[in-house]
Amino acid sequence: MIRDRSSTHPLRPTRFSADMISPAVQNLNDDEALRRSTVLERVSEGVVALDTNLRYTYVNDRAEQILDADRAQLIGRHVWDAFPESEETAAEDALDLALATQEQQSFERYDPGLDRWFEVRVYPDESGLSLYFTDITDRKASEEELAQKNRQLSALIENTAQAVYVKDRAGRYQFVNEAAADLVGLPPEEAVGKRAEDLFDAESAAEIRRIDEQILADGTADSYEATRFIDGTKHVFLENRYPHRDEDGAIVGIVGISREITERKRREKTLEGSRQRLKSLFENLPDSVVIHDAEGHILDVNEQTVDELGYTYRELRSMNVADFEVGLSQEELRETWRTMEVGDRAKKSGRHRRKDGSSFPIEVWVDKTEIGGEKRFIALTRDVTEQLQKERKLKALTEEYHALLENAEDAIFFLDVEEEESGTEFRFERLNPYHEAATGLDSESVRGKTPREVLGPDLGAELEANYHRCVEAGAPISYQEELDMPAGPRIWQTKLAPVVVDGTVTRIVGIARDVTAQVHREEKLRRKNERLDEFAGIVAHDLRNPLNVAQMRTTLSVEDPDYEELHRRKVHEALDRMEDIISDTLVLARRGNEAESLEPVSVTDIADQCWDMVETNAASLIVDDACTIEGDPDRLRHVFENLFRNAVEHSEGDVTVRVGRADDAVLYVEDDGPGVPPARRETAFKPGETSREQGTGFGLSIVKRIAEAHGWGVRLTESPDGGARFEFTGVEIRS
Questions:
Q1: What's the CATH superfamily of 409-514?
Q2: For residues 283 and 387, is the Cβ–Cβ distance under 8 A?
Q3: Where do the PAC domain residues begin and end (predicted)?
Q4: Among 13, 137, 289, 517, which one has the highest count of C-beta atoms within 10 angstroms of its own C-beta?
Q5: Which pairing describes strands 504-514 and 251-260: parallel, antiparallel, or unpaired?
C-alpha cells in the first residue's frame, strides 16, 4: 500500500478550475477539456481523481455530496487522511490492487448520511486513479426483494404436499421435491437422474413416455387422471404437465405437478407456479457517455463507449448517433432533441449496434445543456441486457407463483413475524382462495391481525404456540391439529416453513391439508379391524372346547366299540355346538354386544350342559343354588364354558368348581385352584391377556363382553379356598 503522505501545497479552488481536472484531461486542448469538464460536472455520477500518491486532484459536485466533504478542502489531501475510517476496507484493497496491476477494480460502499448504496469503479492510468461513484440503491433493493421472493418460492415448492418435478427431453428427472420423492420411496437426490422406467411399472412408464413425447412435440400442457403402481401398490394421481422452456422459448423438457387423489379422487386442476411482486428497475446511471449536437453529430465520447461499441475514439468522433442507435428511428431521435429545453432530461429505450454487427438493448438518459455557449446533448447509456433477462424471469416466476397460489388445493397462508418489546408477534399477511373457502376467513379481514385477534384468545394462543416452535427451530415443522373455524370444525395436517433473512425468521409460509374425512375413515377402520381381530379370537377360542370333545369321542368310538353310539352322539353334539358358536359369534359381530332372547335359565341345567362340553379330567362341579336367572342361554353357555375351562386349565386337574349366588343380584363361579394374583386381576379381562403359554387370552374377555351385554358387571376376586372367584352383579335372579 502506498503510504507516502509528503506534503504538497493543496490547491483550494473556490468552485471549479483547470487545476481540478484530472491529468489525462489536462493534456487535451481547451475546447475538449472544457467539454469534458462540463460533462463531469453534470453527470449524476460522483467523479474523483487521485494522483499516484493517492492525493485528491479532482472532485466533481456529485462526489462532493456523496463524500459529504468540501471538495476545495479535499484537493491535495491524501485519501486516508481525509477518510481514515475507510482504511483496511474494500476501498483500500481496490485502490491498492488498481495501482499494482493497472487494471480496473470496483467495490460497493454504503453512505449512511445519504442512506444510499454506491458502486465505486476505479480506473488506473499513468497519472493515478479515477473513481466513479454510481448510485445502485434501487438495484440493491430490487436484488434483495428478488432474493426474498425466491426464498419464499423455494420454501413453498419444497414443502408443498404436491409432487413437483422437472425432466429433460430424454425423460431424466432433473429435480424432484420432497413430496415427489416420497411417492416413489426414494430420497430426492437418488430420484434425480432416473427415468419413469426406473420408478414405475412398464405400462405406466409407457404411458408417461407417450404423453411426454406429445407435450414435447406440440408444446402444449396436459392434465389428466393417471393410475400408477409403485412397489406393487396402486396409486391414482391428477397429473398436470407443461413444456419446460428456456429463456429463448425452446422446449428443453417437462415440468410436472402430481397430486395423489386415491382417496378423494379428482377435484380441481393443480398448477405449479409462484407469485412474485417485484418491480424491475433499470440502473439509473449509464456506463457510457456521448456528447453530440442537435443533429446527432458526435463531439466526444468516454472510454466506456469505445469499449462497448468496438469503434476507435477517432471513428466515433466522425459518426452520428443514428449510425449505431438502431432501436430508435432518426425521426424519433430528432423529435426528442427538438422538443427539449436546456436543463431538460429525457429517458428512452433503444438498441446499440456494435462495430462487429451485434447489438444490445440500452436505456438512455439525454440531458440538454450548454457547453461553451453552445447547446449540446449529453447521452448517458446503460447496457440492460442482464436486467431484461431478469425481468423476463421475474415475470414468468410471478405468473407461476400466482397460478400455484390461486389453484392449489391446500390451504396456504403467510404470516409476518415481528419482534416487539413484548416478544415475537405473528400477523396474517395473506390467505389463498382454498384457505378462504375452507375456513370461512378472508385475506382482507385478517391482514395485519394476530391469530388471537382473528380466532379468539384460546384458539389463537394454540396456533401461536406452533408458530413459536417453527421460529425457534428455524426449520420446517409438521403437526396435526383440530380447529373449530368459522366454516366448522376441521382436522388439518399442517406444515410450517420459515423464511429466513440474514439469520432471522421474517415470515412463515403455512400449508395445511384438510384430513378430516381421512382421519375419520382411519379411526372407523381401526375400530372395525379391532373388532374383527377380537371376533376371530373368539371363534378360535370357543371352538376349541367342542372340537376337543369331538376329537376325543371320535378316538374313543374306535377304541371302545361298545359305546360307539354314545360317542357318536357326543360328536354330533360337539359339532352342533361348534355350529352354534360360529352362528352366535357372527350375530355378535353384526349386532354388537346386545343379548337376545332373554328368558328364564336354570343355573343348574346350563352349568351341567357346559360342564359336559369341557374336558374336565378329574375336576368336579358343585351347584350351590338351584336358582333361575334371566338371560340369553346361548350367550351364557359361552360364559360358563370359558370359566369352567379356565378353572381346569389353570389347576392340576383336581379342582372343584362351584356355582351359586351371593345375594339377590350376585351370581358367582369359583374354584379352589391356584387363583389369580391381585396384580393381574385388573388386566385379566383384556383381550389377549393370559398366564398360560398355550392360552389365547380371549376367554375372560368373552365373559366380560357377554356380561356387559346382559347389563351385568363382573369382577375377579379370591374364593374362600384361595382360588379364583368371578362375581356377576346386577343379575336378575328369579328363584
A1: PAS domain (3.30.450.20)
A2: yes
A3: 220-273
A4: 289
A5: unpaired
Whether residue 5 is predicted with pLDDT greater than 50 in this model: the reply is no
Q: At what angle do helices 564-591 and 633-649 cross, to 10 degrees?
A: 110
pTM: 0.29
Query: What residues are paired with 289 via a beta bridge?
Result: 380
CB contact at 8 A, 180 and 258: yes
H/E element, 376: strand 374-383
DSSP secondary structure string for all residues of 711-729: T-EEEEEE-TTSSEEEEEE
Distance CA 695, CA 697 (A): 6
For 163-260, CATH gives 3.30.450.20
Give pLDDT tens digits for 319-343: 998 899 888 888 888 888 988 888 8
The domain 288-383 having CATH identifier 3.30.450.20: the answer here is: yes
Residue indicated by cell numbers 378462504: 436
Short-list 430, 404, 458, 436, CA closest to 177:
404
What fold does the segment set 18-135 form as a domain? Beta-Lactamase (3.30.450)
Domain 593-735: give its CATH architecture: 2-Layer Sandwich (3.30)
Q: Provide the residue count of the chain.
A: 735
Domain limits, the chain = 18-135, 163-260, 288-383, 409-514, 515-585, 593-735
C-alpha cell belonging to residue 180: 415427489
